[in-house]
UniProtKB/TrEMBL annotation:
Transmembrane segments: none
Domain PucR C-terminal helix-turn-helix: 198-253
Family in the record: Belongs to the CdaR family.
Pfam families the record matches: GGDEF_2, HTH_30
Name used for this protein in its record: PucR C-terminal helix-turn-helix domain-containing protein
Residue ranges of domain CdaR GGDEF-like in the record: 34-141
Superkingdom of the source species: Bacteria
């Protein structure tokens, strides 16, 4: 947080209008500021307790102001109570408090017309509290920035689709996901488990079953079995080119971090 943000937070008084509070809350959340003062800002806007929220983002179809109106109306029509809308560069991001029929999937469908048809739209997972609000906004921004790396991105994009690209852009959430849920899972709790060395050897050998089996001195079918088990535990299949890229990135992050 910069000094201007700190001063504004410290001096914020009850007469400040909601639009100003909303802009400040959005800026703080986008910069990973989630302390008690930001929680107080959210409380003023009606975001109280351990709320559930999600974010939707994309490039506005016309203007940010028009897209903001569409987003707010969509949430209101679904019975939702709270939405914070802000812009970052050319992107418009909407943070939505999940309530009533304003669930992530339904709200995204309703808000979609606010965004350009030929540009990516991202829908975050549902997370909780002020820290979760910051998380979903930041991962939405990183995902939109990373989207051009995909030849045929889905619409909307989902959290796991751009993990390596987000990590390359400096997204700490993506790096942590790759480390904890891929690298660490591959290692397992048993030091004698061959899953990690099999996957890493397979990737290092250009996804060649024969070369991997030769290096590990096992039958190719053993390699197949181990790769299948790794896919079941991590959700990423080393025999799939895209998944192999995710695994390779996770291995690189894990090795650097453990060093």
């Amino acid at each position: 947080m910069n000094s201007d943000q700190a001063d504004i937070l410290d001096l914020l008084a009850g007469h400040t209008d909601d639009s100003t509070i909303e802009r400040l809350a959005f800026e703080c959340l986008m910069t990973s500021l989630t302390d008690d003062r930001v929680a107080s800002l959210m409380n003023v806007l009606g975001w109280r307790g351990d709320f559930d929220c999600f974010a939707i983002g994309g490039t506005p179809e016309t203007s940010p102001a028009s897209a903001s109106l569409v987003a707010r109306k969509a949430v209101r029509d679904l019975g939702g109570e709270h939405v914070i809308v802000g812009t970052y560069g050319s992107f418009l991001l909407a943070l939505v408090c999940q309530s009533g029929a304003a669930t992530a999937e339904v709200t995204c469908t309703s808000i979609m017309p606010a965004f350009k048809d030929d540009e990516s739209v991202y829908l975050s997972p549902v997370r909780s509290g002020v820290a979760g609000a910051s998380h979903v906004l930041r991962e939405t921004l990183f995902s939109l920035q990373a989207a051009p790396a995909l030849a045929s991105p889905s619409r909307p994009l989902r959290a796991d689709e751009l993990l390596p690209e987000r990590a390359l852009l400096g997204d700490d959430y993506a790096r942590e996901e790759l480390y904890q849920n891929v690298y660490q899972v591959l290692h397992g709790e048993n030091p004698d488990d061959p899953t990690f060395v099999t996957v890493s050897t397979f990737l290092r050998n250009g996804s060649s079953l024969e070369n991997t089996a030769k290096e590990l001195n096992v039958h190719p079918n053993t390699v197949r079995y181990r790769l299948k088990r790794a896919a079941e535990t991590t959700g990423w299949d080393a025999t799939d080119p895209r998944d192999a890229y995710v695994l390779t990135t996770a291995l690189a992050i894990g090795r650097m971090r453990d060093r």
